[in-house]
């Protein structure tokens, strides 16, 4: 393997116990134990995507599968978004989310990621178990709140990315968050290769959070039709819609998104719209109906032209980033 730039060894690598500042996003329905283990084994941080609906016993099996395949650090991503009680007096986690949190704490998963919402109530328990906690944010105010809540690092993802997104582009969001907080920042949103990693480092981030790129890998749990659609798509073939969950979410444009665009008034708030989104996710991501199903993807699909092994993706990105950094200093 070629010599890699020393700039790739960032403080977030030491924080998480990884070799390369490449974090695989915890994508629901797609990122299971095989993918997480492959990324972690290659030197990055693999993350199981538990979302809001992975049964607790299944999550425990996937965590133990990772540990059977690698001794490297890995993470679990849970959507912590809470819902208000019937009287509106408090916001609480759903029963499924609470059960997943319990499993992650019991299993002492090295890294817990809050993909949506605040993990504040869980941080003391996680820290007592030697775990690190990261939060995905889409705005400076969210990053400041996450740091005030006690997270170890923030993952700032621009609206270029796939899945749930905010309103700010990656190129502006990353340096703005870096300037606003005193913890490591990981960059996500529209990044898919080593040039993106080099650019993220130049913007002040200490690593990258890549989702769409890792959907198009052999170990990802998505249907082959889903992967092939990402490989064939251009950067202009995605749209942001609330049709999946009730919150803005970037998906590949298809019959599903077009039909809901025509009836946006019928979209229910989060999490009620997930009743539609979960059925459509199963249809698209698992069954491979790429016209009528939900297919999360970022604008980075325009940079993806193959679906290799996840370990090859990690190594390729490291080589490309190192070469890009060498060109800059040269």
Assembly status: single chain
**What is the helix content?**
25-40%
Question: Which homologous superfamily in CATH is the superfamily of the largest domain?
Answer: Aldolase class I
Helix/strand-derived category reads alpha/beta
Order of helices and strands: HEHEHEEEHEHEHEEHEHEHHEEHHH
Average the pLDDT over all residues and give the rounded result: 95
From the alpha-carbon coordinates, what is the Rg to the nearest angstrom? 18 Å
Describe this structure in words.
The protein contains 13 helices and 13 strands. The chain has an eight-stranded parallel β-sheet with strand order 1-11-10-8-7-6-3-2. Strands 9-13-12 form a three-stranded antiparallel β-sheet, with helices on one face. It has a two-stranded antiparallel sheet with strand order 4-5. The chain folds into two domains: 6-221 and 308-329, Aldolase class I (TIM Barrel); 224-299, no CATH class. Strand 10 (185-188), helix 8 and strand 11 form a beta-alpha-beta unit. With 330 residues, it is an alpha/beta fold. The chain is 40% helix and 16% strand.
């Amino acid at each position: 393997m070629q010599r890699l730039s020393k700039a790739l060894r960032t403080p977030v690598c030491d924080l998480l116990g990884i070799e390369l500042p490449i974090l695989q996003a915890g994508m629901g329905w797609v990122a299971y134990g095989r993918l997480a283990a492959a990324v972690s084994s290659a030197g990055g941080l693999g993350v199981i995507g538990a979302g809001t609906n992975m049964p607790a016993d299944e999550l425990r099996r996937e965590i133990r599968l990772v540990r059977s395949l690698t001794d490297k650090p890995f993470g679990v991503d849970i959507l912590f978004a809470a819902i208000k009680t019937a009287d509106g007096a408090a916001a609480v986690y759903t029963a499924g989310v609470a059960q997943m949190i319990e499993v992650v704490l019991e299993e002492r998963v090295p890294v817990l990621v809050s993909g949506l919402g605040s993990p504040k109530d869980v941080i003391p328990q996680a820290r007592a178990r030697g775990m690190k906690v990261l939060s995905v944010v889409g705005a400076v105010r969210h990053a400041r709140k996450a740091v005030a809540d006690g997270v170890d690092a923030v993952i700032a993802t621009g609206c270029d990315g796939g899945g749930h997104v905010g309103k700010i582009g990656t190129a502006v969001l990353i340096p703005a968050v870096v300037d606003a907080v005193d913890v490591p920042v990981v960059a996500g949103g529209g990044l898919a290769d080593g040039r993106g990693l080099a650019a993220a480092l130049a913007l002040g981030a200490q690593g990258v959070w890549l989702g769409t790129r890792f959907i198009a890998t052999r170990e990802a749990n998505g249907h082959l039709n889903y992967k092939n659609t990402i490989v064939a798509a251009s950067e202009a073939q995605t749209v942001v819609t609330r049709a999946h969950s009730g919150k803005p979410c970037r998906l590949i444009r298809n019959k599903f998104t077009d039909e809901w665009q025509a009836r946006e008034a019928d979209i229910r708030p989060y999490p009620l719209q997930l009743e539609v989104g979960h059925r459509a996710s199963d249809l698209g991501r698992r069954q491979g109906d790429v016209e009528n199903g939900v297919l999360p993807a970022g604008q980075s699909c325009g940079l993806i032209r193959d679906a290799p092994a996840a370990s090859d993706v990690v190594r390729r990105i490291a080589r490309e980033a190192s070469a890009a950094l060498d060109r800059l200093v040269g």
